[in-house]
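Subject: Interface between my chains keeps coming out wrong

I've been trying for a while to get a sensible model of this assembly. When I model each chain on its own everything looks fine, but I need the whole thing in one frame so I can look at the contacts. Pasting all components below, labels as-is. Any help appreciated, I'm running out of ideas.
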Amino acid sequence: DGGITQSPKYLFRKEGQNVTLSCEQNLNHDAMYWYRQDPGQGLRLIYYSQIVNDFQKGDIAEGYSVSREKKESFPLTVTSAQKNPTAFYLCATSPPGRGSEKLFFGSGTQLSVL
Amino acid sequence: AQSVTQLGSHVSVSEGALVLLRCNYSSSVPPYLFWYVQYPNQGLQLLLKYTSAATLVKGINGFEAEFKKSETSFHLTKPSAHMSDAAEYFCAVSPNSGGYQKVTFGTGTKLQVIP
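Reply #2:
Try treating it as a single job with all components included. I did that and got this:
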C-alpha cells in the first residue's frame, strides 16, 4: 500500500530536549518536504530535499535539522534551540518530472511541550 | 515573489447551499494554483489544480475553481454543500517555472456545514 508514514502521531518534548519526527515514503518520489502548521497561519516550509544527501533550508529552518541518507526517509529533529515547538508537523513528497507540482502529504505529527 | 490571500478564516453554509471559498494570489510569473482540503488531525489532500490549461478546473467531490487572471483570483465553489464537506481548505500557489516547485500556502478557511 503506497503512501507516506509519519510517526509518532503525538509527541511530547521536555524542556531542553531534542526530538526526532519520522517520515517514510514508498512512493518512490525524489523530493521530500517538512512543513509546520500553526492555527491560523497555514503551512510554513521548514526544510526540503530534492535528492539523497542534499537538502535546503525553507522559510523557518532555525531550531530544526534534517538528514536524507535514504530516498525513502527524511527525519526532522526539533532541537532545544526551537523555543516554540508546539505545532502540527506535516511531511510531504512530490514526484519527479510532470506532476512534480503536486504534493502528497502524510497524516502529521502533533508535537507538544511538557 | 508569490503570495496567497484567503478571505475569511471561517465560512458557514447550510447543507445544500452553495459553497464559495475565496482565494486571491500574487505571482511575478505565470502560476500554478491549487486547492487542498484537510480533515481534522489529517494531512492535506489535493482537491484540484490549475496548470495553465483550461481556466475552469474540476476537482474531486464536486468542487471546481475558475482561474481569473484579470482578477488574480482562484475561488473554490461547490453547488450544494454536504455535511462531509466540513473541513479546512487551503489555497496554494507555485511558480510555473519547472524544476523544484516551492509552494506557498494561504492561511486556510474552515468550512462549517449546518444541517
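Reply #3:
Confirming on my end. The two ends of chain A are 35 Å apart (CA to CA).
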